[in-house]
Specification:
This protein is of the alpha/beta class. It is built from 13 helices and 21 strands. The strands form six sheets. The chain has a five-stranded parallel beta sheet, with helices on one face. A five-stranded parallel beta sheet has the order 8-17-9-10-13. Strands 6-5-4-18 form a four-stranded mixed beta sheet, with no helix packed on it. Helix 1 links the parallel strand 1 and strand 2.
């Protein structure tokens, strides 16, 4: 049987992670790469989240690939359309846009006796692969709240990640359920348009300012033409992100400075004392995602906006009923309720060696070695997997490191003429204990959040700094892995 010198790789997801992986593999001679994407185009999060005001809350200089820096960003934090345009340009420049197979919903990935993967879509198509990269991420499946009567509501409704641009909100009575990162961006945009806006909040948030106005012409010229300015700004925002992580890791010392800064800003913006009382968070700064906006809190104090903190008990055909018995008539309900973050790639069915499913492997919560590899699932790699989210930095930094690590893994497989690479269970177990232990004493453990499962295990976030994660992934240690032999071959040495 001939050696497999050029492994066939299937990437699931054409967002930031999937594109980063495809570009990294292409740069190092891996030419047989296919990207399967459920949407009609590439972009992932930035393809779907096209709601009014949609933008990144990380500076564009850092929220962009290190190998594809731009000097012509229009503002500090780019809006959705500019980010999507950037991703199309990068994909085209590196020739990976032609690898994308759109409108493909992957339903299963199965490791079989041929020591390869079979990837199947819900329309019956299949792809064989030596390696699979699951780049579906943590924030791609809209979460809807379990509210009695939700299906009985006869008005209009949609999730912010599935914004209905054909529905005119002008003059309507609108309810927004949720006050997370998406709602914080679109509420100020729609508040001036609607007749009445009810914002239903479960818990308050800590805020920091972000005006995000377009750069003046002079500033744009300096960034674009003065050597070193772009590099300096990227480094500055990298360190700023690490500072936020420092505050979250040390809530009783440095974290108090972050909380004080946030509190001063919020008090300055919240002139209405009743709204301030309702909005004020009751948990440690950084436990939940810190939100950046200079407009949301002001929008809550508009005459046509009401903040409701009573729990929603049910929906009727034309109204929302709260726990205290109040009934609010509305024409439209917008769910700004985030994503099913702990589901990762599910409901996709993943079956590894010996017929073991990923649901079985993750029965106690999602886990993976460095967020990338799972024992018993050879040459299956995750991008933005468990414990690789950041509360104070850029996800792209993590995904570039992951892409390079996956490329190293496949190089080891190719050089050894092996079938696949599989992380050793004891290595994953030891690393997982170390990761979970680092959360002790941090702000992340101070409340319930989407970072955690119902049992309290934190499955979303990396407990340290960007620089630490990059260092851990810089060089793959082959002794951490077993190399699966090709059929009818003797075992391959590590």
């Amino acid at each position: 049987m001939p050696d497999r010198r050029d492994p066939k790789v299937v990437i699931v997801g054409a967002g930031l992670g999937g594109l980063a992986a495809a570009i990294e593999l292409g740069k190092h001679g891996f030419t047989d790469v296919t990207i399967l994407e459920r949407a009609s185009g590439l972009g992932g999060t930035w393809f779907h989240n096209a709601y009014p005001g949609s933008a990144c809350d990380v500076a564009s200089q850092l929220y962009s690939y290190s190998f594809a820096q731009r000097r012509d960003w229009a503002r500090l934090c780019s809006p959705q359309d500019e980010i999507l345009r950037y991703l199309h340009e990068v994909a085209h420049d590196h020739g990976v846009d032609r690898l994308v197979v759109p409108n493909t919903v992957v339903s299963s990935c199965r490791w079989d006796d041929s020591r390869r993967w079979t990837v199947a879509s819900d329309d019956g198509r299949t792809w064989d692969a030596d390696a699979v990269v699951l780049a579906t991420g943590q924030l791609h499946q809209p979460a809807y709240p379990s509210i009695e009567g939700r299906d009985e509501f006869e008005g209009h409704s949609f999730h912010s990640a599935e914004w209905d641009h054909g529905y005119d909100l002008c003059g309507k009575r609108v309810a927004v359920v949720g006050t997370g990162a998406s709602a914080v961006q679109f509420v100020p945009e729609i508040a001036p348009q609607v007749e009445r806006l009810l914002v239903f909040q479960r818990t308050g948030n800590w805020f920091l300012p972000r005006k995000n106005r377009p750069y003046p012409a002079l500033v744009r010229a300096v960034i674009r033409y003065v050597p070193g300015v772009q590099t300096f700004r990227r480094g500055f925002f990298y360190r700023y992100g690490e500072l936020l992580t420092l505050m979250i890791r040390h809530p009783r010392t440095v974290g108090r400075l972050g909380q004080a800064r946030s509190a001063l800003f919020m008090r300055w913006q919240l002139r209405d004392r009743e709204v301030r009382r309702k909005v004020w968070p009751d948990y440690t700064f950084g436990c939940k995602r810190v939100l950046f906006s200079s407009y949301f809190l002001r929008a809550l104090q508009r005459p046509n906006v009401e903040l409701v903190t009573d729990a929603i008990t049910r929906l009727k055909p034309h109204s929302i009923v709260t726990a205290e018995g109040a009934e609010h008539e509305v024409d439209c309900v917008i769910y700004g309720t985030g994503f099913r973050t702990n589901d990762f790639m599910f409901p996709m069915e993943i079956t590894g060696a010996e017929g073991r499913t990923l649901r079985e492997a993750w029965s106690d919560g999602a886990r993976a070695y460095l967020g990338i590899s799972i024992p018993g699932f050879p040459s299956l790699f995750l991008m933005y997997g468990p414990n690789t989210n950041t509360s104070g930095g850029s996800l792209i930094v993590y995904e570039e490191a992951q892409a390079a690590y996956i490329r190293q893994a496949l190089e080891h497989v190719r050089d050894r003429a092996a079938a696949a690479i599989d992380v050793r269970p004891e290595v994953e177990e030891t690393t997982d204990r170390q990761v979970q232990a680092r959360f002790a004493g941090t702000a992340w453990t101070g409340c319930d959040s989407w970072y955690r499962t119902e049992t309290g295990r934190i499955v979303a976030n990396w407990p340290g700094y960007m620089r630490e994660y990059e260092k851990r992934l810089r060089v793959l240690d082959p002794s951490d892995f077993d190399f699966v032999q090709l059929p009818d071959r003797s075992p391959v040495a590590a």
